[in-house]
Specification:
Layout: E1 6-10, H1 14-26, E2 32-36, H2 39-48, E3 58-61, H3 70-79, E4 88-92, H4 97-105, E5 109-112, H5 117-128
Helix pairs in contact: 1-5, 2-3
Length: 135
């Protein structure tokens, strides 16, 4: 049996995680959304999947998180051989040019979190193109 593609979503805001989870669920796609609340949990999850055949097909990473923020987490992910090839999208409320420059340095896309359910649906469609989540 083929495993579901995994999207890893690192965000300390449970409401943001729930909104994306529900949006993806409503689309009826075949993927698993794994959620972490900070960079430390994200790295622990990624290290626990080392060597498995179903690593995340996409990592959504918030910048402003406690314990280990998104900037620190991204730098570590892109420096480690086992995780550097995972596609990362920084998914944040920030629109700061400094944050955009930071993302460019690591060659990752930065997306601003949408403010409406319709816009979130369109963003989710784009995010799902990174994974084979359809039947």
């Amino acid at each position: 049996m083929k495993q579901k593609p995994v999207i890893l979503y690192a965000d300390d805001d449970p409401d943001d995680r729930e909104l994306l989870r529900e949006t993806i669920r409503e689309k009826g796609v075949l993927c698993e959304l794994v959620e972490t609340a900070n960079g430390r949990e994200t790295l622990l999850y990624l290290r626990s999947t080392k060597g498995i055949k179903n690593p995340p097909c996409l990592l959504l990473l918030d910048l402003n998180m406690p314990v280990l923020n998104g900037r620190e987490t991204l730098a570590i992910i892109k420096s480690e051989l086992d995780t550097q090839s995972i596609p990362v999208i920084v998914f944040t409320t920030s629109s700061s040019p400094l944050d955009e420059e930071f993302c460019k340095r690591f060659a990752v896309e930065m997306m601003t979190k949408p403010s409406s359910p319709e816009e979130l649906g369109r963003v989710a469609d784009k995010l799902l193109t990174y994974c084979s989540c359809s039947e």
